[in-house]
Amino acid sequence: MSLYLEHITQRFGQTLALNDIDLEIRNGEFLAILGPSGCGKTTLLRAIGGFAKPTEGKIRMDDVIYSGNGKMVPVEQRDLGMVFQSFALWPNMTVRQHVEFPMKSPKQKHLTEAQKKEAVDAAIENMGLKPYEDRYPGELSGGQRQRVSLARAIVGKPSILLMDEPLSALDAELKISMRRVIQDVHRMTGATIIYVTHDQSEALAMADRILKNGKIEQVGTPEEIYLHPQTEFAASFVSKCNFVRGQWNDSYFKVMDQSLIYDGPEVAQAFKNHGLFPVRPEQFHIVKEGKGIPATVTNRQYSGREIHYSLKCGEDTFTVYAGSREQYEPGEQVKLVYQAS
Length: 341
Hints:
The chain is built from nine helices and 20 strands. By secondary structure, the chain is of the alpha+beta class. The strands form four sheets. A six-stranded mixed sheet has the order 7-8-9-3-10-11, with helices on both faces. Helix 3 packs antiparallel against helix 4 and helix 4 packs parallel to helix 5. It is globular.
């Protein structure tokens, strides 16, 4: 079953939080809603979950209307599970009691007690929580608490899983581990996942498609948004992007004050309108001599497999990722050569 958002608008007084969202979320899809704070990500998730009534528009699961046309289906009657940023665990309940809780819902009354126990056992086992099932939240690590939250969300086998910045409270190493767990949950359950995050790396690593911003800046696969951004915001928010200034002539771009010509047949019209050419950090190659944009190295950061350079090019500062053996010092005069992916 697909979830349809039809002209969803959300206002809070004079503030427009969601602006005419029109989107189909396909069955079994992993959709990441990516954007900075205040762009409407969580508001959209709350509208889908039934925690907030949209000011305008309709939300439906195939032909079943969840919100709109004078109808508002309560949260508990929607076929979905929720994973919160704060874990939302009760301190007086054990791991098993947390996972058992959704099975007490009227939605699960068709199951026998044996079937409910089997579902709880499976969720605990799949999340690696069997050794901890009698512990309380205060006796668990951050990663274990998040696994409890995931087990509780999937035990009832909902069609849709809503995840509101579920990894933001975890440290960097644990985030990477939990990404794999969430991907495993997606493959295991086949549920549609709608995942809210401000972390570009999370969205790029896990999602099938990415929704940029509450007004839909761009929707596409991670590869499409990274390699073919449609707006300056999409290009700059999803990882680093350098904007070279110059003039366009059809699909050809002449770099400002240089005789350099770049071929950009797939560059979006939004960049052409502003006389810009988007270049990802790995698409620039630093050379000491040759035909390229003159630049001055201002900073270098070693990160193992590569070095991240900051370079001053006229009034602009560009970021370039180079191999760990490509050594340049701050103050060194170099050239930047564009190499298309």
